[in-house]
Design a protein that fits this description.
globular; 8 strands; single chain
Length: 440
């Protein structure tokens, strides 16, 4: 089974190289632990969170999963075979008492053998940049395993923050931020004196450890404000993923300080940001078009689009089937089964992992039948190259379209938008105390 796990890990890593435009892991040393461990993370993107964390860690994981996944005969075989332990939740029990004694015993045995568990302690996936209150199961499981071995396991709990540019977007970015471990043995005395208090205390500490590792906004209004400002900052003063993360954390802190010290001024600023975002939406624009406001760039955009059109059509037509099947599967699941939108990336990735290599192989077999094996091998080699070129071409075309739409606006509208953006940028530089150009 170890070889199967490693093979699946390689497949997932290759798939993520394609699915995500960029992935960055900070403090990777915390994921190179030895011995028994429980890895916990926030949970904004269903199974993608699990796979992203496991793909970056050295250890082989077992995963605590919703018991509803095990109800069918196939699900019970599949998830038990592939490293999952079922956990019953109150929200799935229909009012019946929850009994996880046998499942906790499996987790205890796995940890006692030096194994690693992954747990999403929020209890369910929330597609928001906000940490919900953690369930106490992680701490209870950790104390159970450690106390049965007289605190000689050296069990550690490793917090990990998972941050996506957009959880539902193909070719988005992901920033994985590992934190320092928390050792269960350090709380032995507290647990022996008062187990309930010890469990709550460790759960509270895990929340404190996780929040700095992720973007944690208070509500939808704050998150929308921060997203708009993130775009303005990144379009005018780009930073790599880790720098973006640190700048956004500072941005949130500064906005909250400003709100506490001068709520009226902060509210006026927020209304100006909302007004700017509304104006962009009404004119079907993105902030990047204003940040690139250097006139039409047709001197290279048109030649690039014209010269690249044949290769784009080749790549587009050859990827219609493998790209269509995951999208069609997602659409069917969302319309027929009312699938939660948070599973979008999971479905696209999971289906695409199979459709692309299978379709590549089938298409190359057709070419071999028509033109011979030598041609089919060259054709097979060309497919991933043409696929990436097609993605790049589409991005250039979207930029050209956005630039054209911006240039076609009336002069007065363009001037008003420029003025609003300049005012926001000036306010960012004046009011927020971090350096908008070099904050990292």
């Amino acid at each position: 089974m170890y070889l199967i796990y490693q093979l699946l890990k390689v497949i997932v890593k290759i798939g993520f190289r394609i699915y995500f435009r960029s992935t960055r892991v900070a403090n990777r040393q915390h994921l190179r632990f030895k011995g028994p461990a429980i890895v916990v993370s926030n949970h904004p993107n269903t199974l993608m969170d699990v796979l992203n964390v496991a793909a970056q860690a050295r250890a082989q994981f077992h995963f605590l999963a919703n018991s509803g996944l095990f109800k069918s005969r196939f699900g019970n075989w599949f998830f038990n075979t592939f490293y999952c332990i079922p956990i019953e939740r109150l929200l799935d029990s229909n009012g019946k008492p929850v009994n996880n004694a046998a499942n906790f015993a499996r987790a205890d045995a796995h940890l006692a053998k030096g194994g690693t568990l992954y747990i999403a302690p929020e209890g369910t996936s929330w597609m928001k940049r906000h940490l919900h209150p953690l369930k106490t199961g992680t701490a209870r499981m950790a104390f159970s395993a450690e106390s049965k071995k007289d605190y000689q396991l050296n069990l550690q709990i490793v917090p990990v923050g998972v941050n996506y540019s957009d959880p539902t977007r193909f070719r988005g970015t992901v920033f994985i931020n590992a934190g320092a471990p928390l050792y269960v043995r350090d709380f032995r005395e507290l647990y022996e004196q008062d187990p309930i208090h010890a469990v709550r205390h460790v759960t509270s500490l895990l929340e404190e450890r996780l929040r700095p590792l992720m973007i944690d906004t208070r509500n939808e209004a704050e998150d929308e404000l921060v997203k708009t400002l993130e775009n303005i900052l990144q379009n005018s003063a780009p930073l790599p993923l880790e720098g973006q993360f640190q700048r956004t954390k500072q941005l949130i802190d500064q906005l909250r300080i400003w709100q506490a010290n001068d709520p009226t001024a902060q509210r006026n600023f927020q209304e100006s940001v909302e007004d700017y975002a509304t104006n962009l939406s009404q004119n079907r624009l993105h902030d990047a078009a204003l940040a690139r406001d250097t006139g039409l760039r047709w001197w290279w955009q048109i030649p690039t689009l014209l010269l690249g059109l044949p290769l784009f059509l080749y790549g587009y037509l050859n990827h219609l089937l493998p790209a269509y099947i995951p999208v069609a599967a997602l659409h069917r699941l969302r319309t027929r089964a009312n699938l939660y939108i948070g599973y979008s990336s999971t479905v696209l990735f999971a289906v695409g992992v199979f459709t692309f290599p299978i379709c590549y192989w089938l298409q190359s077999e057709v070419v071999a039948w028509l033109a011979g094996s030598t041609v089919s091998w060259w054709y097979l080699l060309s497919l991933p190259i043409a696929g990436f070129f097609t993605l790049w071409y589409q991005n250039i075309a979207r930029q050209a379209q956005a630039d054209w739409r911006w240039q076609q606006l009336e002069t007065a509208t363009k001037a008003a938008l420029r003025k609003k953006r300049a005012a926001l940028w000036s306010q960012l530089q004046k009011t927020l105390t971090f350096d908008t150009k070099t904050a990292v």
